[in-house]
Structure formats: C-alpha cells, structure tokens
Design goal:
With 410 residues, chain A is an alpha+beta fold. Chain A is built from 14 helices and 19 strands. Chain B contains four helices and six strands. The longest helix of chain B has 23 residues. The chains are: A alpha+beta (410), B alpha+beta (163).
C-alpha cells in the first residue's frame, strides 16, 4: 500500500507514522537520501592528495577522497567485482585502492587499473568497472554528494542558508576551520526526531537544566536565551536558522567588548604571541556562533560544531558531533574548543545524554495512539518581514517537514 | 624492587580498584570523589590508543572541578537521563603492575567489563583501564584513571554512569 504522503504532513502537525512505519523509511531512503545533496565531509579531513575517509550517503557506504590530481571524489565503497568493501578503516592515505578479496586495483579516481589473471575473462573492458562515482560539489569546504545527476547545483540548493554558513565559519577566528575530532552515538529513534531538535530552543532550559547549572554566571546568562531576541527563520528547501544569541551572530563584530572573565586566562596565554586585535578575534571565535543552521536532510552547523545524522532504520539513528577549531591557530584556543565540546557534547557530555533520552522517549511514546494522535509543530509564529519571530517557534520543523512532503510526493 | 614488594603493591592496588568499581556501581559518588588527589585527571579518550589527551577530543577529560560538576549532574535530579540512570555492574581483573612514576606512584593496568541495564536492555562496555595510584597509608588515592573503551572510536549511546 502506498501512503498518501501529502496527507501525513499538515502545516502544523505530522502523522506519527513518520516515526514508526518501516515502509515510509524505505521511501525516505529512496526519495530523500538517494536523491538530494547529502553532506559527507569537511575539506580539512582530506588535507593531502590521496587522503581518504569512509562514511555513508544514506545507508550506502562510500569513500570520500582527494585523488592524485587534487579533486575530491565520493565513490561507493564497493568493489565492482563481487561487492566487497574496498576500505574498512576510518581514514588513510594511499596512491590507489586494492580490494582485499581478489586484488582488483583501482586508481584514486576509481578507474580499474588491474586485476590478477585477466586472461580468465573474455572481452573484458576495464573501463566498464570504474568504482561508482557520485556527483560531488562543495561550498566553503563543506563537501556534499548526491546520486542524482539532475539535482540543482549545490549552491542553489543551499540558497539562503549560504550567508549563515559564511557566518558560522567565522569561528575560525581568522584561520580556516578544521575538524578536531568527533563524538558519535546512536539512539533508538527516528532520524527526524534529531532533525527537529536542532531547531528546538523550547526544550533547552528543561532538558539541559543540569548543563545550565554547571555554567558560571556569565555563561549561564548567555545560554538563557528564551527571551533574548532570538528567532527561527525558514531559509527554503527545508533549511532553517535558529538564532539563540543575537550578539553572537557575527563573530567579527563587537570586538571591542570586554573579554569575558572565563576566557581571561586564555586571553593572557594568547597575548604572548598575538596582537590584542587577534586575541579578541580568537577569543570571540572560541565562544562559537549564537545560532544553529539546520540543513535538510543531514547536516547542522550548530553553534560550535557540525551535527551529522545518518538514518540506520526507522527507529535507529546515528548522530555525529564533529568538533571544529582553527587550522594552524593557537593550540590553547583549540584546547579550549575541545574542552567546551566535551562539556556539552557526546555520550558523556552534560547535554547529549539528556537529548538522547528525550528522543528515545519520543520514539517509545509514539508507539501509542498512532492514527488518532499527531506530532504537533504548531508553536510560535514564523519570522517574517513584519514579524520579529520567536526563538521557540517550531518554524524550522515546519520548514523541514514541508521539504519532506515535497520530496516524498515528487 | 623485590618481587615480594611488587606482589604486595599489586594486591593492594587490585583491592583499591575493586573498591572504586563498587563505589561507582553503587553510585556512592561522594565517596568516589574522595578517592582522588585534587590534581587528578579522569580521562575517557575517544581513540583507545590516544596518548595526547589535552590536544584531542575525549568523552571525559576531568579535573577536580569537572568531576564535581559531573557528580552533581548525576545526582541533582536536573538531568532526565541521570534521573533514570542505568544500573551498572562491572568486573575488574587482569591487574598488572606496569611500573612506578618518579614520585613512586604505582602504574597499573587492568581490564574492565561493564554491563549497563536500562530500558529493558543490557549494553556492554569493555575497556583497558590505566591507573596512576599514590600510596596513602594502606590505601591509595587516584592521580590518573584512563578508561580506554575498546569501541571508543565507534558510535556509543548516552552514558548515564561513570565508566
């Protein structure tokens, strides 16, 4: 039975089956993750020619690499012979790829270079066995891939999210942004529960009370953003931005402000090798951005890190919290970034385990009353030219689900 | 050092490590905090082979202040995951005396098999644990505890206890 997807997503609510129906999940993999642009890596993960990492596009394992000519490629991690994965490690550097099963050997661009005992094949054309390359485009170091040759150009797809990505990358503090490491965890719940959460300010003071209690007074003040002029804005194509701390939207503004007490020691350390202007710029960058950009379907540029989700099944999702810092920047600043990341993020962070618990509870609770009770997204008015908006508005979720509907009914 | 002294050191360390395990399984966090020297570091690295914890990402890299805050989080009732914390049972074994620091502190490595129970399911966390223990009378205080989860580099789940 094919569901009428347009009936399952209304303007202010979605049907619970979106969290629970395995058939819907299969269609999502097909119509969303195998069809649109999916974020796969950041440039800094492939600094050199022949560098590679392994990851996934939707459920499909891929290799992301910088080939010997310097071009970033995304290829299915699957030998064209019998289907074995070519790479199982998380990352490496190699002048080519050799399948460990029968030693079919590929160049860094995926072309089949050689195989043992080729005479055993008749009319064999190596050109027919190149590793499957996906379409790849990147924006400001964010690398995306898609199976869809007809997808719009990436920049068009990102659209009005681009200026927010530009602002987010200012937390390099004058240096390029670099991946510093990642926390990875799974939760037993549907991927859209996490997608929603990145634009959900409403939960923050409730779910993250223990995190807020652990902050010093000034930082606690910063995170008390329920009534601080924030808002959520629909950026089109399912993307949205949630501004929580308006004074941290542009990290290159307000550099004359006094350095917060909690960063005084860091600032002193930086002054040994940096001018006062640089110190202020770096310290402000260490704080991170005051907003989350939610990019449909799998990436968020979230305050001070990348949040990446991967759907595993209708009720299992993997989430990565990728720490970022300053490439070539002062070690003390990057250490401060790492410690801030550890404080909130990851399986032992002061925030993530509570989020994960809430998401699991959503999945468990939505087993009840499936046909009669809906998931509500009706909170708050959207920001418009005439409306200031509300940081707790569920605008970002509404935007994502409208994109979901568009793609699922296309 | 004589074999006899080393054997005795290791036996005392094993007894101490078992005590620490019991305190954590029984969530006696106040007593656990008291086991530490003030400058002690509690580390759970992401990469189980990591040696430079300061410049890399960890699950926990706790000084005394972070340990206290972590315990407060687990016990305050403000955290929804900790309010329904997993129950844990850990076995510690395979104690080996690796040597001594310049200050004469013991360096010990042990195995830890931890099972958590929550929401009708068991999860297993297996780790090599490295200790630096400072002798204090007939017991010890912890200078460093590094929990190297075998699957630290993979996807974990929310951890509502102290490994």
């Amino acid at each position: 039975m094919t569901r009428d997807y347009s009936a399952l997503v209304q303007d202010d609510r979605v049907h619970t089956a979106l969290y629970t129906d395995p058939a819907i999940f299969e269609d999502e993999i097909d119509r969303i993750f195998n069809t649109t642009w999916v974020w796969v890596a950041h440039d800094s993960e492939l600094p050199n020619k022949n560098d590679w990492i392994t990851t996934h596009v939707g459920r499909q394992p891929v290799i992301v690499n910088r080939d010997k000519a310097g071009t970033v490629r995304v290829m299915l991690n699957r030998c064209r012979h019998r289907g074995a994965t070519i790479c199982e490690a998380k990352k490496g550097n190699a002048p080519g790829f050799v399948c460990p099963y029968h030693a079919w050997t590929y160049g860094t661009d995926g072309t089949l270079k050689g195989l043992p005992m080729p005479k055993g094949y008749k009319d064999f054309d190596k050109g027919d066995y190149t590793l499957v390359n996906l379409r790849v485009e990147s924006y400001r170091g964010l690398i995306f891939a898609t199976f869809n040759q007809d997808a719009p150009p990436l920049e068009e797809f990102l659209g009005r999210a681009r200026p927010w990505i530009d602002l987010f990358l200012k937390q390099g503090g004058g240096y390029p942004v670099k991946v510093l490491g990642e926390h990875k965890f799974t939760f037993p719940g549907n991927w859209k529960i996490q997608l929603e959460n990145t634009t959900d300010a409403y939960h923050f003071p409730i779910v993250h009370k223990s995190f807020l209690s652990s902050l010093d007074g000034d930082t606690g003040e910063l995170f008390s953003f329920m009534d601080a002029g924030g808002y959520v804005e629909d950026l089109g194509n399912g993307h949205s931005v949630m501004v929580m701390i308006p004074e941290l939207v542009d990290l290159e503004e307000n550099l004359d402000e006094p350095i917060p007490e909690r960063f005084a020691e860091l600032a002193d350390e930086l002054r040994a090798e940096h001018s006062e202007d640089e110190v202020r710029r770096i310290v402000r960058a260490v704080t991170g951005s005051g907003f989350n950009v939610n990019l449909f379907p799998n990436l968020a540029c979230s305050m001070a890190f990348f949040r990446v989700l991967r759907p595993l099944s209708v009720e299992e999702t993997e989430v990565r919290h990728i720490a970022i810092g300053m490439d070539g920047g002062p070690a003390a600043a990057n250490r401060a970034r790492l410690r801030l990341h550890e404080h909130f993020q990851g399986p032992m962070g002061f925030g993530t385990p509570d989020d994960a618990e809430a998401w699991e509870r959503v999945q468990r609770g939505s087993q009840a009353g499936e046909d009669s009770v809906w998931i509500m997204l009706n909170r708050g008015e959207d920001k418009t030219e005439s409306n200031a908006g509300d940081v707790t508005a569920e605008t970002g979720m509404r935007a994502a689900y409208q994109m979901w509907k568009r793609m699922m009914t296309a | 050092m004589s074999t006899l002294v080393a054997t005795r050191d290791l036996a005392l360390a094993a007894e101490f490590i078992a005590l620490e395990a019991d305190l954590l399984d029984n969530r006696d966090y106040a007593a656990w905090l008291a086991l530490w020297v003030p400058v002690g570091k509690y580390v759970v690295p992401v990469n189980p082979d990591e040696t430079n914890f300061e410049d890399t990402l960890n699950y926990a890299y706790d000084d005394a202040a972070m340990r206290s805050m972590r315990v407060r989080r687990l016990t305050s009732g403000e955290s929804m995951s900790a309010a329904h914390a997993a129950r844990t049972l850990r076995s510690v074994s395979r104690f080996r005396l690796l040597g001594h620091t310049e200050q004469g502190e013991l360096q010990v490595r042990s195995a830890q098999q931890l099972i958590e129970y929550k929401f009708d399911r068991h999860r297993t966390y297996v780790a090599n644990v490295e200790w630096v223990l400072r002798r204090e009378g007939e017991s010890f205080r912890i200078v460093r505890k590094v929990v190297r989860l075998l699957n630290g580099g993979d996807a974990l789940a929310g951890i509502t206890f102290l490994p």
